[in-house]
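Allow me, if you will, to draw on your knowledge of protein folds for a short while. I have a record of one protein: its chain in single-letter code and its fold written as discrete structure tokens. I should value your view on which stretches of the chain appear to form regular backbone elements. Thank you for your consideration; the sequence and its tokens are set out here:
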Amino acid sequence: MYFFLLSICTINALRLNPEYSAEFSKNDVVSERAKMNDSMGLEGPLKPEEQSKLKKNPLMKELKARVDGWHGQTIYFIGDSTIRNQFSAFCLLLNQQELVMTKPTIEELTYYLGHAATPANIRNNHGWAGCKDGKTTAFFAMTRENNSTAIDYVMEHAPAPDVVYYNSGGVYCMYGSSAPGIEGGVHTLKESCQPEYYKREMKGAISAMKSKAPNAKFVLMLSHSVCFFPDFKENLRRVNEAATDLIKAEEEGAFANVAIVDGWKLTDGKCKSADKSGVHYNMLVLDELKSMMDAAGLH
């Protein structure tokens, strides 16, 4: 999703979703995307003022009490920046504001991505990150598409997971195949996001990860709604629809015992809670974490 920073610079005028504030300018969006590229630490995805607000949210106390009552859990967060921000909020639950994070080598990133990596890939990926308290540990790996190799990369650095919280990479699909021509009409889904291709890739990723972590509980997060460009929002709706169809078709197969967090339902129509990227809902990350914990049976 990071190449959006480049494509957004070609826009002459933003066609914002009517429910989203028209006050946002092109520069607002470009600036916000740049900040997200610069850092994976809490001062990037969750700004200090957002951290302060989250700490005052009654859900913080409720979720922290849950975590404190666990008898040791290892949770993997694997996905795009919407999962990354939930990981950062989870680290707040563990009272960890300083994250251990790495930058992979090209060789490691080739393995991690499942295809040949470049220096540009290293700038836009963060290897793995981790945080822990006395009993609970959490790890994060960035992947913007369906990916069955990121979990291998984390497992080389971390204990085997009790829970794998995975994002299906739908936000990557919102840009369509004609992203540079944003004013040029309806965006068509790129090949990797076409329903049958996407379902095949997601099934393969889930099946592979389940085979590598057979004792883990798997939770799949459907993608957020977004707050700009109706065509982008429609692309995401179609991808989530494909994911939902696959889940129903495979509920006794690849998706047996895979729980669902409906990111679309949690965020659609709530653009006042979104950041200026129109993708992240940082004031709702605790609600998302609660849904994940409920889905995973972590009470």
In short: The CA atoms of residues 78 and 166 lie 5 Å apart.
